[in-house]
Specification:
single chain, Arc Repressor Mutant, subunit A, 6 helices
Amino acid sequence: MIWEEQEGPGADRPSTLHARFAPEALIEPVRTQASGEEILHTVSAWMAAGMRVEPAAQRLFIHANTVRYRLRRYEELTGTDLSVTDEAFRVWWAIHRDQAGAA
């Protein structure tokens, strides 16, 4: 866990960076949207397809531009950049953790 370097009240709170990458921060902002489950499913399929749009679109039976749109929408809602490996891994972990909890 990443901690803020500060003294006084709030010194023991996780940093903004940690809060941004907490699993809930990578799932809940998306889930609150009307199409949130579709977006999460698309991100998961894209990752399972080797982070490639065309194979993900084929798996989902949707147009490649729809995959691109949903990936962009995910990034907008969560503030992540899926082209950054560390961030993509955190997203993968959060989605799988969420799916395991739902099972």
